[in-house]
Amino acid sequence: GFDNNEIVRLEFDSEKGTLTFFLNDVQQPVYISGIKEKVRFVFALRGQNETCIIHSLKKLEAATAGHVANEKTVQW
Q1: Listed residue (58, 67, 56, 55) closest to 16, CA to CA
Q2: Structural domain boundaries in the chain
């Protein structure tokens, strides 16, 4: 799970077909590759007092994700 006030960011690169995860602005070593179809983001909250705030949803001019140590790919 995540702690209170942690920032989770997902970056989808439609040209490469990759989805990269960031936690508190730190790129995580696991990413998803091989995504060829349209993408839809869905959020699920389990607890009664949990919230999710979407600060932005935008198209980036260039990807910010790079390679990190010990990265692992999950094939879609």
Answers
A1: 67
A2: 8-75
pLDDT score recorded for residue 41: 84
Q: Which of 62, 76, 71 is nearest to 22 (CA)?
A: 71
Say which residue, 3 or 50, is predicted with more confidence. Answer: 50
Model confidence band, residue 72 (pLDDT cutoffs 50, 70, 90): very high
Identify the three-state secondary structure at position 73.
strand
Contacts of 7-13 spanning 24+ positions with Cβ under 8 A? 10/41, 11/60, 11/63, 11/64, 11/65, 12/39, 13/63, 13/65
Measured between alpha carbons, how far apart are the two ends of the chain, in Å?
A: 22
0.85 cut: is pTM over it? Answer: no
